[in-house]
């Protein structure tokens, strides 16, 4: 059962729903951790996946940027491979490398042997959501999952990859195996998101981090049907949903098509595409999220101030051009070397504008 809270004054939920907030809402991808000294202190004592399955730790880490930066939304501290690990797939998150898969998926037999995700396997995540909704007050909580294509890229490659050679070779040359894998991962993604919704998250974001490696034609044929099923299934939750990828300028229209028509559809935009250009590419009624280059935060306050003002103005122009709303964010995640004080000042500046 969905135990979602009523948060009528939330600028984030207001903008995501296509209404006019009293201020531009702002939050940052990878705000839970990365640059915060209080996060690093905790992580020195816990491995990443261990932390992701500890409800109290998840709650504490998720709350840290809300306390420090006064952002308008919290995003659940987790990782896109958490549901894979929970389901029983052998993997680890290796420091300075990323997710590494014990036995990569290479054949139809490998796909058929993949375990399904059961709700009890992510009970610690659900418990963390309940702790957070009790502590966050009027700040909404965003749940998330990796999109089927991005999960597939890790499973097939065996870890991070620059060119996704094995993934694309399977996609293009072994259609039945590919679609069987994507179907299984779509089911897993839905199960993970549903567990978060049932626990009480206020919004969802699906990260298709590596979709930008694909052509529009390949994305439409091999990825869009599966991502669309994720959003179509989760639409029953009646909460805002965001679709995000990196390097996806040519895919923004198709990515907006994956979102089920409704009142709260958001597409994330990276820094390579202006928000006004994105507004012309996405479906009418879609809000936009983004899109400050994360590296700007390393360039000193005068540069940050000018860049933040430009993004806010671009967001206003995008809304005037037809976007349903604008949520200020980075074009990707906070970089570890970022000064937390700069983030706090950037949030205050956005709110002042």
Automatic annotation (TrEMBL):
Domain Uroporphyrinogen decarboxylase (URO-D): 25-34, 142-158
Catalysis performed (reactions): uroporphyrinogen III + 4 H(+) = coproporphyrinogen III + 4 CO2
GO MF terms held by the record: uroporphyrinogen decarboxylase activity
UniProt keyword terms in alphabetical order: Cytoplasm, Decarboxylase, Lyase, Porphyrin biosynthesis
Stored InterPro entries: UROD/MetE-like_sf (IPR038071), Uroporphyrinogen_deCO2ase_HemE (IPR006361), Uroporphyrinogen_deCOase (IPR000257)
Compartmental location: Cytoplasm
Binding-site residues for substrate, renumbered to this chain: 30-34, 79, 154, 209, 332
Site (Transition state stabilizer): 79
Example of a GO biological process term: protoporphyrinogen IX biosynthetic process
Catalytic activity, EC: 4.1.1.37
Keyword Iron set for record: no
PANTHER family the record matches: METHYLTETRAHYDROFOLATE:HOMOCYSTEINE METHYLTRANSFERASE RELATED, UROPORPHYRINOGEN DECARBOXYLASE
Subunit structure, as described in the record: Homodimer.
UniProt family annotation: Belongs to the uroporphyrinogen decarboxylase family.
Function: Catalyzes the decarboxylation of four acetate groups of uroporphyrinogen-III to yield coproporphyrinogen-III.
Protein name: Uroporphyrinogen decarboxylase
Species annotation: Mycolicibacterium goodii
Encoding gene per record: hemE
